[in-house]
Each structure stands twice: as structure tokens, then as C-alpha cells.
Amino acid sequence: MSFFDSEMVRAEVAHIAEMQEDIYQSVWKFASFDDTEKLRHVTLLQDLLEKQRVLYTRLSLSNDPEAKAMKENIITSAKQLGFPPDVDLGYVFSNMSSIIETMKKTIQEGS
Q: C-alpha angle 43/48/52, rounded to 5°?
């Protein structure tokens, strides 16, 4: 069975795509959001990041050629965004998580 034959994997990939779309649609409005909307947006970012981290880990553990290809696409995208070729994406996920947590705290303290 292929990695993507799993109903659970397909559902999770679809959910990640929906979450990304929701975030992308509102990212340009972030500055005009009130604190409640900002907190909702940042919490959604946090949830998305965690789902992406789990998916990336699952891709990394799979021997399926399609999973390996998707992982390589993610690494290529990271390089295109300016990350060094040898960057550990687990480290990137951790740093992003810390940044998002700081954003949440800043918003909550401003409320």
C-alpha cells in the first residue's frame, strides 16, 4: 500500500491544504485585525505548523517513493525560500513554533 493510499493521510493532507488556504486569505489583513482575530490567526498558524511537522515526520519515516518525493519537494521549497541546503527542517519547525508562541504571548499581553 502506498503512503497516500491511506485515508487518514489523504484526509490530513487535505486538511493542511484547507488550513493553508484559510491563512493565506487572511494574512494580508493581519495588521487590521483586533486582538481576538490576531489570536485566532496565530493559533491557526500554530495548529498548521504542528500538522505540517507531523506530516513531514511521517514522510521522513516512510520508504514509499511518493512520500520520499513529497519530502524532497518540501526540502526544495525550503531552499527556494532561502534556507541553506543542509538545513534540518525539524530545527526549522522548532524555531517557527517558538516564534509563533512568542507572537501569541505578545497578543495576549496586549489584550
A: 150
3-class DSSP state for residue 88? coil
The set of cell numbers assigned to 95 is 524555531
- CA–CA gap between residue 23 and residue 72 (Å, rounded): 24
Q: Is 36 exposed, middle or buried (0-12, 13-18, 19+ CB in 10 A)?
A: exposed
* Phi, psi (deg, nearest 5) at residue 39: -65, -40
Query: What would the pLDDT profile of 40-73 be if each residue is shown by its tens digit?
Result: 999 999 999 999 999 999 999 999 999 999 999 9
Sign of CA dihedral 55, 61, 65, 69: positive
